[in-house]
Amino acid sequence: MLEKLLKSKKCFKLVLGAGNEDTKSIEKLMKVYYEAGCRFFDLCMDENVAQKAKEICPDAILCFSYGIKDDPHTVKAQINPSKCTGCLNCEETCIQNAIKNGCIDEQKCLGCQKCVSACHNKAIQTYSKTKNLKEILPKILPYKPQCIELHAISDNDTEVENNWNYISENYNGIISLCVDRSIIGDKGVIKRIKKLIEKRKPYTTIIQADGNPMSGGKDDWQTTLQSVAMAEIIQKNNLPVYLLLSGGTNSKTKELANLCNIDLNGISIGSYARKIVKPYIEQENFLENKELFNQAVKIAKELINSTYV
Question: Within a domain: residue 8?
Fold first, then answer.
């Protein structure tokens, strides 16, 4: 099913957050985007999340993401009470509603670090929260994922390769590699991809070209520019992989990719996709209110359709 979707080149993947363990928000988002036509969902590699996702959309294509240490997608924020003045800038900035009364809900925090930038007193720090892949992957496999994704934005080649090899040896489906060039540069990205896919069959790998992780809050050309630029670098090397765009993706991404002659298989959208339906899903009794639900679905459908242009 996933292979067919990728080959259609109309693959829309909703990114629910590699660090998002909040099953309540996941349920609302999945139901809205599934109704709008999305069938491909990217989720945190967590057993509770996997169980909930399977209950919500039994026939959906599920991808579970694992981030290595210090990858941006493994970051969590924490507040130092001794430095906090209670200004609430962080609470107002948090797009996940993860901050309340000077405390951060780790399950909701995605590590976007917007709260860090908003704090004038430097009271917020970040840390990397990782799980043991060898412990968590066997717990995820019974939920029959059609894709496992490795977030490998790091200069630690050994850790990247060890985790990639473990997934390859213990999972027979399509594997996705999420990479950007912020740390290892253009040549480093291509070198890493070539090394990791050399033993895999052609087109059993997705390369998710991450322009600027978790930056898709705006719907403009500038925000999505880096995702398209990252995709162009990968495309020039004619690799036997499927290509998805992510990191700052929005409703402008497909149009810009077309202008740049990028032959992509699909688009992964997270921050922007969540943002545009947030005013609806946060309202009380959202799932029981058909009018609110249908309004959110309409907006979600417009975004999905924009990726088919």
Answer: no
